[in-house]
């Protein structure tokens, strides 16, 4: 009996410890599950292939409603990669496109106010292509791969889908041209060519939406054609009609058919008049002056007041560079949803729910895409082993005024007073001491008390 009395307190202690352990495990499990769920919502790591050929690819992370939440992401982020000397064939989209040249150089041609606009793009350039405007992309470099990051609206008016749609003008069996959908008698009448010529014209292309512009005399000829200025292209088209003199009679007939249809599709006077077009030029994000800079990092942004074509797309762009260990101070974007793509380094993205709980505290690396809903507080923190650079889009082309919650000239500085002190349940002197402790603003230095493995 005495032994039982002795063991009973010990059993109770062990039982309480077990219950506490289980409760703690369940709490940590819920906390871990919450972090995982937040990463599923705010980190866009699932890349979907849109186009993939030997000459290049286009992949994207999808927007739309996040599974199991009320959150809606109104933008896809696309990644275009093109091998040296390749072409993304002519097409138009049902979504506005904002292009950012991450690496390499490109030549873009698109129809602007019924005229052909051609622009050379270099690393760091921004360029917009309106929905419904036919365009092509070309990587003319012989030794360098082209990489482009682009924003794509998901508010498709033509389909009502949460995905954008390409309409290829050029094409054959792969991809199919939109012309191929018409009845051949109707189309041959519209083009004023025979149905046999039309059939050959619509079945020659089999290499996919991104094609090499080298490897055969035929493709080299079109590479030279694309390199011409608009007012030289008509004369070049005349010269290349007979470029395959040694081809078989069947090949010559097919080649002539393609040239004949091309002459039909292109109005000669229109080509000559394209020299004087006034389509917008590209805008270099890298060559802009910084909007903010201190010894801990810098920011640059571009909106419709800086680059008017952004007004039609309704998107803004920005780039941020943080020195090792530094932080973009906790802030709120009251006017737009924000998207970010990590260009260099590693860091952490912290996002907070409206109820004051942590939504996400995720480590990110080069190539990761994240998004932050409007009004949600968030911050970006660079790892201590190198600089952290990220580029992104916002869903408003108007001048953005983020509200910083802490730091010099922050909301805490502006709101300090008896009301704000009462909200925290502390005295005004203590509140003043806390709000004045940070002398930096916007980009803050790392804390010496923060362990290196925190980020």
From TrEMBL:
Keywords recorded for this protein, A-Z = Signal
Q: Which SUPFAM superfamilies match?
A: RmlC-like cupins
Q: Note the superkingdom of the native organism.
A: Eukaryota
Limits of the Cupin type-1 domain: 42-199, 283-432
Mind telling me which Pfam families this protein's record contains? Answer: Cupin_1
Q: Which InterPro entries does this one have? A: Cupin_1 (IPR006045), RmlC-like_jellyroll (IPR014710), RmlC_Cupin_sf (IPR011051), Seed_Storage-Functional (IPR050253)
Residues making up the signal peptide according to the UniProt record:
1-24
Record-given protein name = Cupin type-1 domain-containing protein
Classification from the root reads:
Eukaryota, Viridiplantae, Streptophyta, Embryophyta, Tracheophyta
